[in-house]
Amino acid sequence: MKTTLAFALGLSVLSFAAVAQAPAPLAPPTPRADSTGSIGSTMTRDFMTKAASANMLEIETSRLALDKSSDADVRQFAEVMIRDHGEAAVKFRTAAQQGRLTPPMAKLDIDQARAFEQLKAASGEEFNRKFIMLQKSAHADAMTLFQAYAQNGDNPAITSFAQTLLPTLQSHQQMVEKLGDTRS
Q1: CA proximity to 96, closest of 52, 56, 145, 141
Q2: CA distance 102 to 100
Q3: What b/e sequence results for 81-99 when a residue is b if at least 16 CB atoms lie within 10 Å of its CB, and e otherwise?
Q4: Above 90 in pLDDT, residue 122?
């Protein structure tokens, strides 16, 4: 019995020593602050990154259309895209500042870059068709992205930006649908 009691006492001392030496549980990771010192949620950062790349895609493919297309309707649509999405980029930066966030660097994601290169390789009517298809797809994706953030966003300034831009995106979507219908 003494042996069992001594063993149990020794085991509890060892257990206590092991707990005392165990590292403290890790604290949850600290969210990354941007250069203004404010912290953006993952939802807001994802939205901002996708919005910036979508905007860039629509501008860059439209610039390409002005270089490569001789179709008056395609060129007119491209001019509207460059103007409206250029204005959207300014509003985006303003909203980010109001939301105390630093806007991400606009760059195309892998799929967008691939689509851009395929469009760049096309010419003539094939270019026009691919440009219209890409713009339809891009605007459908943008509508989904902006609607979701406008309804569920957690940064008031960025949410307001998304809500404000939705009518413009919807107008673009209607324009490109009409442009595509004239080609059918």
Answers
A1: 52
A2: 7
A3: bbebbeebbeebeebbeeb
A4: yes
Please tell me the distance from the alpha carbon of residue 44 to that of residue 56, in angstroms, as a whole number: 18
Q: Under DSSP, is residue 39 helix (H, G, I), strand (E, B) or coil?
A: strand
Instruction: Measure the CA–CA gap between 142 and 166, rounded to whole angstroms.
Output: 9
Q: Give Cα separations from 136 to 5, 35, 171, 180 (angstroms).
A: 79, 35, 12, 8
Q: Which two tokens stand for residue 18?
A: 């092991």
Q: Which secondary-structure segment (H or E) carries 72?
A: helix 72-98
Buried b (16+ CB within 10 A) or exposed e, 155-183: bebbbbbbeebbebbeebbebbeebeeee
The Cα–Cα gap between 109 and 10 comes to: 61
pLDDT at position 181 is 85
What is the rounded distance in angstroms from the CA atom of residue 160 to the CA atom of residue 88? 13
pTM of the model: 0.76
Q: Is the pLDDT of residue 117 over 80?
A: yes
Residue 176 is which amino acid? V
